[in-house]
Hints:
Structural class: alpha+beta
Amino acid sequence: MNIAGIAANTGAAPATAAGVADARLADNFDTFLTLLTTQLEHQDPLDPMDATQFTDQLVQFSQVEQSIASNKHLEKLLAMISTNSTADAVSYLGKKVEAEGATTSLSKGKAQWRYHLPENSANTNITVSDANGKLVYSTNGKLTAGSHDFTWDGKDRIGNTLPEGSYTIGVSAQDANEEGIMVGNFVAGTVDSVHNDASGVVLMLQNVPIPANSVTKVSNPADAPALPGA
C-alpha cells in the first residue's frame, strides 16, 4: 500500500470528492496502525491472533486506497472532457443556431419561434409567458402538419408594449378526437458566449441559455437565418 502517497496528500486542502476521501483515509490509516499495534501488544500470548486477520485488514485498506485512486483518475478524465467540450463549443461563437427550446429574447419589438406539428390539428393555441411565468399573450396557431414560424411583436393582449427580456412560448394542439398532439418548439439566434455548468456545455443566445446538445441547425451569419429575421 502506498502510504507515502497518502501522506503526501495531507499537506494541501483537497478540492475534490476523491481528495477529501484521500485525506480521510490518511487519518484513518494512522488510527488503524495505532489500533493494530495495541492489539499486538495486548494479545494473549497463549492464544495469539491469527496472522491472516492482520493481512485481511491490510488488504481491505489497500482496496479502499485503490478505489480512491481510481476515482481521482476519473475526476481528471471528466475535467479533461469538460475542457475539451468547452473548447469545441467555442466554434459556435458568432454562428446562428436553431435549437429545441421554448424560451427566447424579445428584442427590438420582436421575438420568434418555430413549432412543429407532427399531424394536422383541429385546435392549436399559442401562449407567451414572461420570465416570471405570467401569461402575457395568446393566439391561435396553424392547423396543418409541419413546421410553422411564429413572430410576436412584444405586445400583450390589450396592446401594451412589454419590456425586452426572456419570454417563453407554449403551444398546445388537439386532434379531431380532442386528443393532445405532441408539439416541438424551437428557438434561434446568434451565439454570444459559451460556458460549462452541471448539465454540460451551454450556449448563450442574447442572454438565453441553450444546452449545446439541443442544437439542431448551425449556419454562418451570412447564411439564411434559421427563423425569419432571427
